[in-house]
């Protein structure tokens, strides 16, 4: 895979706090021919994370220069910002010197999943509650790593996660949406989970209610979707429990296309690729 990064920035040292403690943030951005999609939303989330962790925000002109260096065609730009080195143990330095690293690689979405939908399963792992970090894309993703190890079946595209109180939160790397009684809904993310940039854009564009709901809500849903700012929106075609037994099926069709169409408009994906 071809990758690019800033030539003057070398390897991350072993005493980097991001490496040692997950003390930092990251963003993954879809870039088309040097133009970053949902760029302002990515920068807004990065700024929220910097405020929450007490990190200086990188200079705007430095960040704005990166998409243009990502290369031609469809690319995924990954930014990693750590607190840098220093401090004593968990105590961070009073004046941190953050490290910003980035790389860009070719990216291809999966249009067959846009059209046919995906099979997902419920995960056994429960997300811990931490409102101070809720919504942020911080570097400590061990819960997601453990959840993703729960299945090996390539037919299962994603796993759905609940928090320790049993409320739906997200998939391992995507946000969750459903339509119930004609109303669009998505899990509330004020106690844990990652508030995706595509989710934020859809909340602005469409009447989507943020709710507390357990996984049983999906059994009553007329349609359901997963989405993020790289893959776009996948309709759910089948839901399994944590043992792999089928709980619900949907037939992706017109009922699934409205939310998908708005998401793909925001990401510049052609509507014809999903039909």
From TrEMBL:
Cofactor(s) of this protein: pyridoxal 5'-phosphate
Pfam families: Aminotran_4 (PF01063)
Gene: pabC
EC number annotated for this UniProt entry: 4.1.3.38
Protein name per UniProt: Aminodeoxychorismate lyase
Source taxonomy: Bacteria, Pseudomonadati, Pseudomonadota, Gammaproteobacteria, Oceanospirillales
Organism, as annotated: Billgrantia campisalis
Reaction equations catalysed: 4-amino-4-deoxychorismate = 4-aminobenzoate + pyruvate + H(+)
UniProt keyword list: Folate biosynthesis, Lyase, Pyridoxal phosphate
Top-level taxon in the UniProt lineage: Bacteria
Subunit and interaction comment: Homodimer.
Family to which this protein belongs: Belongs to the class-IV pyridoxal-phosphate-dependent aminotransferase family.
Entries under InterPro entries matching the protein: Aminodeoxychorismate_lyase_IV (IPR017824), Aminotrans_IV (IPR001544), Aminotransferase-like (IPR036038), BCAT-like_C (IPR043132), BCAT-like_N (IPR043131), Class-IV_PLP-Dep_Aminotrnsfr (IPR050571)
Pathway stated in the Swiss-Prot or TrEMBL entry: Cofactor biosynthesis; tetrahydrofolate biosynthesis; 4-aminobenzoate from chorismate: step 2/2
GO function terms (MF aspect): 4-amino-4-deoxychorismate lyase activity
């Amino acid at each position: 895979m071809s990758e690019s990064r800033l030539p003057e920035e070398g390897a991350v040292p072993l005493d980097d706090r991001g490496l040692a403690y997950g003390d930092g943030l990251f963003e993954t951005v879809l870039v088309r021919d040097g133009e970053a999609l949902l760029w302002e939303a990515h920068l807004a989330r990065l700024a929220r994370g910097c405020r929450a962790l007490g990190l200086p925000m990188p200079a705007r002109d430095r960040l704005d220069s990166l998409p243009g260096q990502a290369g031609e065609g469809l690319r995924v730009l990954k930014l990693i910002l750590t607190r840098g080195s220093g401090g004593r143990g968990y105590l961070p330095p009073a004046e941190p010197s953050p490290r910003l690293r980035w790389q860009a690689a070719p990216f291809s979405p999966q249009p067959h999943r846009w059209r046919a939908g995906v099979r997902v399963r419920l995960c056994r792992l429960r997300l811990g509650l931490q409102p101070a970090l809720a919504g942020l894309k911080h570097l400590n993703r061990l819960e997601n790593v453990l959840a993703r190890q729960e299945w090996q079946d390539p037919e299962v595209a994603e796993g759905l996660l609940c928090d320790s109180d049993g409320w739906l939160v997200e998939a391992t790397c995507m946000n969750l949406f459903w339509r119930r009684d004609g109303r669009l809904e998505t899990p509330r993310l004020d106690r844990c989970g990652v508030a995706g940039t595509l989710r934020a854009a859809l909340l602005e564009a469409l009447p989507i209610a943020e709710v507390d709901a357990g996984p049983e809500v999906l059994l009553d849903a007329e349609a359901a979707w997963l989405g993020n700012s790289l893959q776009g929106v996948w309709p759910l075609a089948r839901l399994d429990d944590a043992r792999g037994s089928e709980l619900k099926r949907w037939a992706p069709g017109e009922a699934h296309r409205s939310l998908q169409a708005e998401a793909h408009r925001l990401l510049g994906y052609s509507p014809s690729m999903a039909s």
